[in-house]
C-alpha cells in the first residue's frame, strides 16, 4: 500500500520539525519519516548555543531572524524552548581583532544587539574570567542558549496539530523518481509518494543523496562536550562564550553546571552511527586545562559527565540549502556543528523557496549546492577562518 503526502521530509531533527512547522503554516500536509525517534540525531546532542556573531552576514541574518522565535516561542510556536538569556561573549585571537570590530559593526547594521567591549568591561561582566590575553571582545547581551530537544518536539507538535504526520522507526531506503522527477520513497514501513522530498537527514544526508545519484560533500563531524560542577568561587553564572584563544566554548547549564566544548580535535569521517555515549580519550583533560586557563577558579570544580555527538559538515563548514538532483528534491543539510540556532529561519526560507519559488525572509541563495563544483566556497566578509579545526 502507498501512502500519499504533499511533501516527504527525511529526518525528525530540528530541521525536519522546522520544515514541517512552516510548511503546515502554508496549508501543506507533509509526512516526516524518522528512522529512529524525534531528535535522536545531532539535535539531541546539541549544546543549544544561540548567538548572532558570525563572520558571514547571511548567517547572522538567519540567526537574528531565528532569535525572534526563540525569544517568543510560546507565542509563535507554542510551549517552551528552554531559552535562557546569559549574554554572549566572543573572544578572538589578536590577529582577528580588527575583523571582530568590523563584524560587530556588520551585526549592528542588521539590528543585532552587539557591542564592542574591552577586557575591563569583560571583567565587570564576568569577574571569574582571566582577561590577560585579549584587549577587546564582542558582547551580545540578549543571547544565550535553548533546549534543542524541546524546541524540536514543540515545533513538531504544532505541525502535527495542523495536519503533518510523524512516522518514527521508519527508515528511508530509496528515493524513487519518474521522468527526472521525484516520485516518493521506499521505507522500512512501506511506500510513500509525494512530488517533493526534502533531505534533512543531518549527518546521514550524504547517504540519502546517493539515493538520487547526488554526491553531497557532507562528511561526518564528531564532537565531544562535558559538564562540570561550577565551584562557588566562580559565582552563580557565566556568559555563554566562544574563546578562540583556547579554541573552546562554554556556557552555564542548569543545576550549577558549566558545559564545555572544543573547536579542535573533532574527527571528520567517522560513521554517524558511532558511539555518542562517551567522549574521546583525551577530551576531558584538554577541556579541563583550557577552561581552567580562562576561568582559574574552575580548578575547584569537578566533572559531572562527558559525551559525544555527530553532525554533517561541508568543506566550507556551512549548510547546503536549495534544490538539486531530480525535480522536487531539496537539500537542507550540512549544518556543520552550528545549525540549531538558525533552524527556525531556514525552515521559513525553505518553505518560501518550495511554495513560492524564492526565499524572501533571508536570501539563502549563497548556500546553493553548486557552490562546491563552481569553486565558490563561502567565506566571511571579515573571515576568522574555519570555526572547527
Ligand atoms: C555535540 C553537538 C553540539 C552542537 N552544539 C550546537 C550549538 O551549541 N548551537 C548550534 O546552533 N548548533 C549546535 N550543533 C549543531 C546542531 O545541533 C545541528 O546542526 C542540528 O541539530 C542539525 O539538525 P538536523 O535536523 O539537520 O539533523 P539531525 O538532528 O541529525 O536529524 C536528522 C535525522 O534524520 C534521521 N535519519 C537519517 N537517515 C535517515 C533515513 N534513512 N530515514 C529516516 N530518517 C533518517 C536521523 O535519525 C536523525 O534523527 C551541535 C551539534 C552537535 C552534534
Give the topology, please.
Blueprint: E1 2-4, E2 7-10, H1 14-25, E3 30-33, H2 42-45, E4 49-50, H3 57-71, H4 73-76, E5 84-85, E6 88-91, H5 97-110, E7 115-118, H6 119-125, E8 136-140, E9 144-145, H7 148-161, E10 165-167, E11 172-178, E12 181-187, E13 190-193, E14 197-199, H8 205-210, E15 219-229, E16 240-243, E17 248-253, E18 257-262, H9 283-294, E19 302-313, E20 320-323, E21 329-333, H10 343-356, H11 370-373
Parallel strand pairs: 1-13, 2-3, 2-14, 3-10, 6-16, 14-21
Antiparallel strand pairs: 4-9, 5-9, 6-8, 7-8, 11-12, 12-13, 15-18, 15-19, 16-17, 17-18, 20-21
The structure holds flavin-adenine dinucleotide (FAD).
Flavin-adenine dinucleotide (FAD) binds at residues 10-16, 33-36, 40-43, 45-49, 148, 171-172, 200-204, 223, 225, 309-311, 335, 337-341.
Amino acid at each position: 500500500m502507498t501512502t500519499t503526502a504533499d511533501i516527504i521530509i527525511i529526518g525528525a531533527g530540528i530541521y525536519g520539525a522546522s520544515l514541517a512547522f512552516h510548511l503546515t503554516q502554508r496549508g501543506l500536509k507533509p509526512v516526516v519519516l524518522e528512522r529512529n525517534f524525534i531528535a535522536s540525531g545531532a539535535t539531541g546532542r546539541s549544546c543549544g548555543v544561540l548567538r548572532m556573531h558570525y563572520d558571514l552576514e547571511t548567517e547572522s541574518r538567519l540567526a537574528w531572524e531565528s532569535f525572534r522565535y526563540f525569544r517568543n516561542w510560546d507565542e509563535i510556536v507554542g510551549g517552551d524552548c528552554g531559552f535562557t538569556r546569559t549574554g554572549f561573549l566572543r573572544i578572538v585571537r589578536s590577529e582577528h581583532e580588527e575583523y571582530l570590530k568590523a563584524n560587530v559593526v556588520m551585526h549592528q547594521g542588521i539590528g543585532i544587539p552587539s557591542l564592542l567591549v574591552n577586557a575591563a568591561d569583560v571583567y565587570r561582566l564576568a569577574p571569574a574570567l582571566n582577561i590577560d590575553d585579549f584587549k577587546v571582545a564582542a558582547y551580545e547581551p540578549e543571547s544565550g542558549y535553548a533546549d534543542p530537544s524541546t524546541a524540536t518536539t514543540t515545533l513538531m507538535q504544532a505541525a502535527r496539530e495542523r495536519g503533518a504526520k510523524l512516522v518514527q522507526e521508519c527508515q528511508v531506503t530509496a528515493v524513487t523518481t519518474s521522468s527526472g522527477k521525484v516520485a516518493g520513497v521506499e521505507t522500512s514501513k512501506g511506500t510513500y509518494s509525494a512530488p517533493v522530498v526534502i533531505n534533512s537527514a543531518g549527518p546521514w544526508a550524504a547517504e540519502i543523496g546517493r539515493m538520487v545519484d547526488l554526491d553531497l560533500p557532507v562528511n561526518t563531524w564528531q564532537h565531544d562536550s562535558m559538564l562540570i560542577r561550577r565551584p562557588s568561587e566562580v559565582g552563580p553564572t557565566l556568559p555563554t562564550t566562544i574563546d578562540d584563544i583556547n579554541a573552546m566554548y562554554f556556557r552555564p547549564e542548569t543545576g550549577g553546571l558549566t558545559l564545555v566544548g572544543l573547536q579542535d580535535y573533532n574527527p571528520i569521517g567517522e560513521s554517524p552511527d558511532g558511539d555518542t555515549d562517551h567522549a574521546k580519550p583525551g577530551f576531558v583533560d584538554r577541556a579541563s586545562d583550557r577552561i581552567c586557563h580562562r576561568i582559574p577558579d574552575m580548578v575547584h570544580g569537578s566533572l559531572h559527565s562527558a559525551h559525544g555527538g555527530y553532525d554533517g559538515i561541508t568543506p566550507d563548514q556551512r549548510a547546503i540549502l536549495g534544490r538539486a538532483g531530480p525535480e522536487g528534491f531539496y537539500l537542507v543539510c550540512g549544518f556543520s556543528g552550528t545549525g540549531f540556532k538558525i533552524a527556525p529561519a531556514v525552515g521559513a526560507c525553505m518553505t518560501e523557496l518550495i511554495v513560492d519559488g524564492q526565499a524572501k525572509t533571508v536570501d539563502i541563495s549563497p548556500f546553493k549546492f553548486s557552490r562546491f563544483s563552481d569553486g565558490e566556497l563561502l567565506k566571511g566578509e571579515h573571515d576568522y577562518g574555519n570555526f572547527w579545526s
